[in-house]
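Sorry to interrupt, but I need a hand with the structure work. Could you write out one complete protein record for me, on any chain you like? Could you add the entry underneath, on a fresh line?
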Amino acid sequence: MAATSTFTLDDDITINGTVQLAAGTVITVRKPGSGELRGLALNSLINLDVASLETLAPRITSPTIHKPFAAAMAPNDMLQFGTEVIDFLLPKAAKPVSHEA
């Protein structure tokens, strides 16, 4: 089973005055595979390039954040999505060590 993580939208995603996804919606992000990353540069994702994140979003989110929805996301929500993506892309050695009890 593919690894997943979630984040909660802080703001509505609104297009033409219509709320497409409401604030408080929990978005599940699936770890991207090579197919979902096709056509994207990893360094652009690591640099939180908005256009690249907009392209990737519909490929790995549930409910699906379609490209126009991603373009309408608040910056703080786009950052939440981007950090989930980065977490999946970083090797374990680059992540902080967890000291859970």
Summary: The CA atoms of residues 87 and 95 lie 8 Å apart. The first strand starts at residue 4 and ends at 8. The chain has a mean pLDDT of 93.
